[in-house]
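Sharing a chain and its predicted structure for anyone who wants a worked example. Both blocks are below, sequence first, tokens second.
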Amino acid sequence: MKISCDVIEDLLPLYIDDMVSEDSRQLVEEHLKECTTCQKMMEEMKKENSLGHGKEGLADVERKAIEPLKKIRRKIRRKRIAAVLMAAVLVAATGGIGHYWYYDKKSYISWEDAGITVRDGKIYAGINPTGRLSAVVSVDQKNMFYMMSETAWTRKEYPADIDTERELWDVKDLQEAHDRGVNAVTDETSMPSGIENIYYVDPENIKEAFRLWDYQDDPQEAQQKEEELAAKCHLIWSAY
């Protein structure tokens, strides 16, 4: 975060007196590397301090009278510094929250709104699937559980285009994935070999879908959870 010269001006007296925290010191020094105005201001302050220390006409009584005023001024400056740093923290936190709500906060789409249909050997979606379609494969690699979600960024970059059908899969390709051997070479975009069923997951069952792999060390329990989830989902395609 870029610190203004006004903030540095408040910090400089404490910086010169070596009374700032390490974080504040770093802020001042980073700013001074690039700001000649504040560099000159610091030199002037150092000169004033030097002249002030060199005066010998002040009586002890005057010095004692001035010292409380110095403490009050330092206290006020510290409070201003704390307020500035707190404001910086709040700005950073607000930016993080805004980033989450815009880019990461997902809204899952129901089966009805997704508009999944099967026709003429192909599977279509009733809204634009770009940036929306994701899936969880079952532990036994036989079932695919698909869902659609979107963020504010997705809605802006890829409008839903409701009622404009988009092709998702060709049934022939799905059947070929089922029929090929488990040792067939595939890439990350390929459907798993031996896939048997494809389901669509409604929003209320999303968490259950993402928990499937919690049971990977217990095949029997994993299969039971897959079957329970499948019973709640919409079957899109089956190899049988």
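Comments welcome. The longest strand covers residues 143-150.
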